[in-house]
Amino acid sequence: MQQMGAAVDLQGSRAYQAARAGVEWGAYQMLTPAAAPPCSSTVLTFSGTTLRDFSTTVTCAVSTADELGTTANIYKIIAVACNQPACPSAAPAANYVERQLTITVSR
């Protein structure tokens, strides 16, 4: 049981890193180009890395705010990482691990 608990802890850390990679990727997509692209959903995979067993679904929502006459776009980026082909899983296996991170960026 102790070894299984340690293995699940390790998978949880990997799921967190995969989710973090997802929100960082989403922030880069929204903040780097001259004109930010419309929000869309994307699935990231990590073949060739220690995160190869994970996939991350990245979604975003955009809203606007008026800041002293200047319109700012506010992006809410959500990344859900799990060790199943699709996140979140409708029928998770016994060793299913999932982490979700949300960030908000403004431009």
Please describe what this structure looks like.
This protein has about 110 residues and is of the alpha+beta class. Helix content is about 30%, strand content about 35%. The protein has a 4-stranded antiparallel sheet with strand order 1-2-3-4. The relative contact order is 0.24. The model has no long low-confidence stretch (mean pLDDT about 85).
| Uncertain parts | none
Number of helices: 1
The outline comes out as elongated
User: How many strands, what sense, and barrel or not for the largest sheet?
Assistant: 4 strands, antiparallel
Strand content: 35-45%
Mean of all residue-level pLDDT scores: 87
Instruction: Give, in spatial order, the strands making up the sheet with the most strands.
Output: 1-2-3-4
Which structural class is indicated by helix and strand composition? alpha+beta
Number of strands: 4
What integer value in Å does the Rg equal? 16 Å
At a glance:
This protein is α+β, with helices and mostly antiparallel strands and 107 residues long.
Secondary structure blueprint with pairings:
Elements: H1 2-31, E1 42-45, E2 55-67, E3 70-82, E4 98-106
Antiparallel strand pairs: 1-2, 2-3, 3-4
Features:
107 residues; elongated
